[in-house]
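Reviewers asked in the last cycle whether our approach scales beyond single polypeptides. To address this, we selected a multi-component target totalling 501 residues and predicted its structure end to end. The input consisted of the following lines:
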Amino acid sequence: MAWTWFHRLASPPHIYRVAGRLMPWLAWPAAVLIVAGLIGGLVLAPPDYQQGDGYRIIYVHAPSAWMSLLVYTTMAVAAAIGLIWRMKVAHAVAASCAPIGASFTFAALVTGSLWGAPMWGTYWQWDPRLTSELILLLLYLGYMGLRSAFDDLQRADRASAVLAIVGVVNVPIIHYSVIWWNSLHQAPSVMRLGKPTMPPSMLFPLLMMLVGFTLFFGALLLVRLRGEVLSRERTASWIREALRP
Amino acid sequence: MTDSGAMRRDPAAHLGGQEAPKTRDARWQAGAASPLATARLVLARDLKLAFRKRSQLVQPLAFFAIVTTLFPLGVSPELPRLRPMAAGVVWAAALLSSLLALELLFRDDAQDGTLEQYALSGRSLTWLLAAKTAAHWLLTGLPLALMAPLAAIALGAPGAAVPGILASVAVGTVALSLIGSIGAGLTLGIRRSGALLSLLTLPLEIPVLIFGARATELAIDGAAYGVPLRLLGALAVLGLTLAPLAAAAAVRINLE
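The resulting structure, written as structure tokens, was:
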């Protein structure tokens, strides 16, 4: 009995309704937290003694980088659930994750590169974090490319699920190999942020942005999931019912 | 497919056709063959078929030679300038050649229905695909490993580096073939899959490139290359345990 809620999630009309009802509960806190975090980070927090105001891009960069990994993990877990229990809704979740994750990864890359310009004196440095972020973007693109290459939706779902699972095994290996490669080849010229010695006035806005971005992803995922469910079920009869104003 | 006729073979021939020797035939049909014995039959068949199409065997090697030639032409013919790049060039070329050869891994067998027979045979598809991947490595990875030291020497590496380069490329291509088998399985049902296959496989192969190029570089410098070589070995073992499972899942999805 305890699992009925889980089984009900597999029903497209149910998930469509639940996602619609849940969405505002994630979206509004996300909006509040992001606005508050931005004010706290861009206006109230003091400038850094080394980097001046340049460090403030961290309030967008770090949450984006965090989301790029979180979304990939979510995608792989959803894909695994879909593959193991043959749950179509889980595949729809995985499919909805990919473009969001790719966008966050892209945002992390762009902000990282913009940060690099004043700090390192160059837009691009083969820094391990930037490099593994770039590889992660390629993994997302490969996932989306594989999905779109199939005409048959079920085949696309299952093949891309295998790829997502293989990728999630590989992501840590790629990450550590890139760190290892970097520590061998790079002259220690990169200026590093003093690790977690951030004063609370800088740290709190960052935490708010992290939580805000996570909730924002949740809300975005629900919106995309509803669209995905609609397009997958476009021939089903419940849709007429659900879309009636 | 330019050469059909003699090359087209009966998909089920080695599963128990009349041409197959009696003993193997009997063993297969009686279901007595262990997964390993079955795998050995598949390995032998793949090798035999490959040696009937020698030109296909030579292509990845020729491609490897061409890619390594591009660098002296594009950068500089001076060995002192080429030597620091030699490891990277050799490995990038090895990655690309193994990628080129991947399309051959399952394509013919998927087209003529052999893979379907494998999936329906009741044997473990994982073992059968592991055997196919092993054959693929013997036909592309091993020759590449034998050629890589020559290319490195042409790029200015000393003769003493040969064992290190040979070992690192030989071990690294095992991992490349295994990772590639997943990508080849996933793109089985897709027409003109070349670009997609490289987008899927190359990011996953980056650790192999890093450790492989490092081992080769250390070998060229005359330093101890044991650590990256062992890491390469670890990647190969990890691939050996997991990749055939994923490849079998991927092939099954595409056969359904």
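Chain A touches chain B through 27 residues (CB under 8 Å). We regard this as preliminary and will revisit it once experimental data from Aim 1 are available.
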